Every structure is written in structure tokens, then in C-alpha cells.
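Predict structure. Chain length: 177.
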Amino acid sequence: MDRRTVIGGAGMLIAAQALSLKAEGRAVSSPVLPDDQRFMQLAVDQAKKGDYPFGTVIVQGGVVLATGFNSARRNADPTAHGEMVAIRAFLDAHGPDALKGTTLYTSGEPCVMCMGAIIWCGIKRVVYAASIAELATRIGQIDITAQQIAAATPFADIDLTGGVLAPEAMTLFPAPK
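Prediction complete.
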């Protein structure tokens, strides 16, 4: 074996090891802020209108810029989750660039679909009431958390705050039988 074969093999090994390292996203657990309960109450109020009790408000600079609630049944659209409805309303009114840096408040921790959309839209912070684990005690859930999705997204930073008004949000779901 000549020197080039050994060096080339070592280079391939180093490259393979570098590629196998999993990039980690920058999800940050952020504390509850003074206005979080006020805006979460608006999201819970939106949830009361939904086909399923999920509601959302999108806020920037202390101003509510869009709202949404789950309308999957009435619209015959399984993607019409509260977060998706609010994002679509925001886009219609303000365009995609304005979404960057907003805070999204939602009565339930975002599902995989909604969390993916939140990340792709550049929303900076997500505040949710009931967690996936709490929701799973009352309604079917895909057991992947917002934190797990954010951690697998190395190209985006996102702040996550959970549990704000969770008991209030959970009262909207039927008790287990």
C-alpha cells in the first residue's frame, strides 16, 4: 500500500465522520413573558370556535396581526389547524417577510405539520398552552414535540415556551372515558 492510498483512506474516514455528525437546531426554552397570558387567552378564545379546540394568534410588537382556529371539518381540509389558518390569514394580510420575528400563541403544542410551517415561515417564538403529552391524554397525537422538531432544524433559531394557561386549554377537550 502506498502513501497516497493511506492518506486518501484517512481523508475519506475523516469526511465520513464529519458527515455523520448530526447538526443540532437551536431551540431555546424561553421563560414566560409578561404579556404571554393575555395573548394565550386570546388563543384559547379562538380555540372555543374551532371544530377541534385549537386556536392561534400571531403577534408582533404587542399587536395581534392574525388569528385562526381549527376548521378542518367545516372546510373539509385536514391541514386547517389553528396555526395553519392563522399563518394563511397573516400571509394574506401582511406577506411572508412580515412573519419573520413574530410570536405565535397556540392553545396546543404544534403538531409536526404546523411546527414545520412555523419554522419555514421564520416565526421567532412559539408559546403554547397544552403539551403534546397532555393532549395525548384526550385526543390522538403524533408523539413528536415542537422541541424535537426544532432541535432537528440546524438552520433556524426558535424560542419555545410551554404550559401557559395549559389547564384552561385542557378544559376544552373531552375528559377521557
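Summary: The first strand starts at residue 26 and ends at 29.
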